[in-house]
Amino acid sequence: xxxxxxxxxxxxxxxxxxxxxxxxxxxxxxxxxxxxxxxxxxxxxxxxxxxxxxxxxxxxxxxxxxxxxxxxxxxxxxxxxxxxxxxxxxxxxxxxxxxxxxxxxxxxxxxxxxxxxxxxxxxxxxxxxxxxxxxxxxxxxxxxxxxxxxxxxxxxxxxxxxxxxxxxxxxxxxxxxxxxxxxxxxxxxxxxxxxxxxxxxxxxxxxxxxxxxxxxxxxxxxxxxxxxxxxxxxxxxxxxxxxxxxxxxxxxxxxxxxxxxxxxxxxxx
Length: 269
Prior knowledge:
By secondary structure, the protein is of the alpha+beta class. It is built from six helices and ten strands; from the N terminus they run αβββββββαααβααββ. It has helices at 9-26, 103-109, 114-131, 143-160, 178-228, 231-246, and strands spanning 27-30, 34-40, 44-51, 54-57, 63-68, 72-81, 87-98, 164-175, 252-255, 264-267. It is elongated and about 140 Å long. 12% of the residues are buried.
């Protein structure tokens, strides 16, 4: 019995074999927090076409380059010179990520190793440029935050032109020779003592001024009161007081003929 071999089976098997062999090139999975840009063997890199997360199907002769779009963090340790020529060891951490809609341009102009080629050199350059304007002791004072901000602003502006966003720059540690570090710490302690002394002195001066103003106010009030209390007013007040005492239910002794002409009332209770 002759059975005819299905003609469609051969191309179907060939297609299955093709998919099986090139499945790793045909199907590309882009995870969450990632984006991709495709290089076409014929048309070249499509810089304006950015692929979002999900499963993508591409021709096996093309290639998908995947970039993380999440904020990433790294650290850099370097030696820099201060304004007075001393060597300072600085440790910085920084956060960055590529602009998602510009990944094609980033890949075309810089490449996947953009961190080593762009970010690290720019961070180091900005750090040396900014710290070189300050003295070592200023890194231990309140200026540390402003120095940190200056480094961030300068580096972010330079990196932005390469399609990379710099999120933050933090000075983690500043290393100095032990003797210099101790000298700076002693100087800062002396400055704190001086500020505390000035604060106490200012507070004492303000308290003295307050007491002086209070005393002057009392003196003026007493002078005005003394000028307003005439003999007639004092006599009238004495009469009022005598009347109130006379109305009291308590027993009392009235002595007529006081030195001021008013009766004296002596209570025995």
